[in-house]
Amino acid sequence: MAAAGSYTDSGVAPGTHSYQVAASDSAGTSPESAAVSVTVAAAAPGPVTGLRAVVRGSTVTLSWTNPANTQGDDIYENGNEIAWPGWPNPVVTSYQVTGLANGKYTFAVAAYDGSGLGPDSTTVTVFVGGLSWMGIINLNA
Questions:
Q1: What does the alpha-carbon distance between residue 126 and residue 139 come to, in Å, rounded to a whole number?
Q2: Whole-Å CA distances, 101 to 9, 98, 105
Q3: In the prediction, which pLDDT does 24 show?
Q4: Residue 93 sits in which domain range?
Q5: Is the pTM of this model over 0.85?
Q6: Number of domains composing the chain
Q7: Which residues, at least 6 apart from 81, have a Cβ–Cβ distance to it below 8 Å?
Q8: How much is the average pLDDT of 13-35?
């Protein structure tokens, strides 16, 4: 009875790779099997960093720093996706949310590329209305 085997190839670069196997014992080595192609996708981008929010009236201006190779961003307000600025080009690092009613809002941003959506940034929480001043509020929830 033949023994089953397995092989793990870790640290493989993104792209398409071909694998073949052959068995060997004291009598020699068998012919190689048919090739099997495996495509390794590139990793999704890392998290957006430095998310800030500036409140002016009923408008919140968000700004952030994207990780390398970002192709666009998803903007989240209170956990719901509200925009994907920069799709398909150009990539942006700021976005204005306008017409907000008085209240508390939490925002996050996630970068994406051809491999998928990266993790959400840390959140920034702002309070719109009811305040007699303008300013930067960055309360990480």
A1: 7
A2: 54, 9, 10
A3: 85
A4: 49-136
A5: no
A6: 1
A7: 74, 75
A8: 86
